[in-house]
Amino acid sequence: MLKSNPKSVNYPGIGVITYKRNLRARRLSISVKSSSKVKVTIPGTLSLQSAESFVLTKSKWIIEKVEYFSTKETKLSQSEGYKTKEHTLQFISADIDKIHINMELGKINLYYPNSMDIANEKVQQVAIKGIEQAFRLEAQNYLPNRVKQLASQFGYKYAKVGINKASTRWGSCSPKNNINLSLYLMKLPNNLIDYIILHELCHTLHKNHGPRFWAELNRLTEGNAKQLSKEVKKYRAGI
Fold it and tell me: Residue 108 above 90 pLDDT?
């Protein structure tokens, strides 16, 4: 039986997972708080073997979460020159007290006190906000018009288009045919942006992912729906 002390197990392809028993817990739970902190709480007298069996059924979800946090934890640097479609991040050291962003002429100018380093957590947080601001601006300028163009081209009707900060899915279509798109779509090549938009437009007719939905999406993508879906999975939302 697993003791109350934490036990860490390194799984090939997943990484280190720490198990800890909590007699007051009502159910087994998995917590992923960073790329290196995956914890499993085991309730009552549930065996470690049973807990591991359950965890392994969730391996795909755990890997996705770990990869997500790995991306979020990547330090942005001056040398990398992080670029969106239309903007480039620039770090500018200055004789100032506060960190701030100035967007102009295709640049995300991040001004930070010369007493700080670029790797400083606060500088990094503002850099991420600046990039998100650029993605949002680009998304607002491009996505609604592109939805309108594709809907007109293929004969679809929708209610309205919204831009959000979703990092778990690229888009959605409500029962009222409101289309919501993640600002992180601007990370994708234009052909994949079109695929996501067409995907959501198909949902104005078919509210699930049944055979009729895929047949419709295949018609719009010249039979390449499944291949385009695979290509999209190579990308992650977020910074």
Answer: yes
